[in-house]
Amino acid sequence: MPLGSTAHVDGFARASLPAEETWPTIEFTIPDVVYPDRLNAATELINGAVASFGPERVCMRAPAGTTWSYGEVLERANQIAHVLTEDLGIVPGNRVLLRGPNTPWLAIVWLAVLKAGAIAVTTMHVLRAAELTPILAATRPQLALCDSRYVDDIVGQEPLTRETVVTFDVDATDGGELGRLAAAHPTVHDDVQTSADDVALLAPTSGTTGTPKITVHFHRDILANADTFARHVLRPVPDDVFSGTPPLAFTFGLGGLVVFPLRFGASTVLIERATPSELADLAERYGITVMFTAPTAYRAIIREGAATKLSGVRRAVSAGEHLSEAVWRDVRDQAGLELINGIGSTEMLHIFISAADGSIRPGSTGRPVPGYRATILDDDGNEAPVGALGRLAVIGPTGCRYLHGDRQGKYVESGWNVTGDTYRRDEDGYFWYEARSDSMIISSGYNIGAPEVESALCAHRDVLEAGVVGKPDAERGAIVTAFVVLRDGIAGDDAKRLELQNHVKATLAPYKYPRELHFAEALPRNPSGKLQHFRLRELLATATRKEHA
Predict the structure, then answer these.
(1) Is residue 438 a contact partner of residue 209, using CB atoms and an 8 Å limit?
(2) pLDDT, tens digit (0-9, with 9 covering 90-100), for 397-437
């Protein structure tokens, strides 16, 4: 499908798209994802919401106490768009790096960048200079808009200079440097009429498997996830209050905490950081009705006795990690919440398989979201039969495009987006997760899914977290190896190790038990909360080298 005529003056993004023959198949099979040729996602989201729901409606809140109406968000985004083009020289197609924790200011700045026809490159505020270097080298931003508390690791990073880093201050009444510049400009703005196929977002992957890749998303892609998963599965209403823990730098957070509420006239509470118990407190305090977080957070809320604080939540989305049937039932029994499971990816922008309400089958991820289709591929790239393990593959209105074509062939195969997850599909079209393809442990000829063993360990009353990987072994090929975090006051000794191993043997087929089990104070996770199995493998490799030294 040919791309629409671009509005970008700076042609970097289009020139850096992967070769067209390496793209996945893109399909628009439902009318909700058929958009006009000229489309600016920010105009559609915030201007459209003000037109439909009125300027006085509450749009964004922060626990610090600030509240922004839809009208105020629109006006401030318009002013910042003027700053970008008139004061800072940004032209359509330029890249603007964004850095900061989840705050209304960060969300508003993101809207302003799109309104100006520029491309947002949102990064985690916790990344250090060395981690930012490859992202900056790949995206070549002309400007950075940064929370004033997190500017040190950006200033001086090529190609940025101090003059091309502008800060905003979420605690200052005037918004700091950027706020003062914005105050001098009109509150109306003639948004750039970008093509629906113009690049709006360059999103680094979460890096759970190592160096992050840069995914490329068009203006229409941003709306497509709201008009598929949110519209047909989540089904938000204007009175909903959204919140959760995923950073806006990750597309799971951007969609769930900004795009979805704005698309449907709801409000959002943007939290910089919250432990599970703090998230439960905020849910009770703000009347949160739609929550996004990882399975481990829901489980922790239940185990900390805070289930009653979720009584106002009507939609609880679990993604980022496998949601086991045991955790689903625990949350349902203790909090009365039927968690909405889902799988998405940065490459696809958001969730593409899910189920809600009466369609939920505990333990299953669900069925393809309207607008998407999915299958299981075998090792030869053929569709696998019902019940067979294989690689999850998806096609829909969004798809993988890596900037500069970096590793494109590892994700796209014969038009399918191949996610790197091992799944099986049942006769009713439900998809059941087994493991990340690189987390499937083959031991003595048996296929053992690491998440299954992790779930069994976490079902033990003394276990807070567990991570499982395969350790290379000359006799068995690999052995199941576990890293376990115990609750406070429980000793990690040989007796406890044997107890946990026997617990797994009693829960699963005995061959799946962890032959090695290590106790840890914490498990390596990325800023979105995903367990980094590759870090556990690195720990094992280091320990093995020391053993043989």
Answers:
(1) yes
(2) 999 999 997 789 889 999 999 998 889 999 999 999 887 66
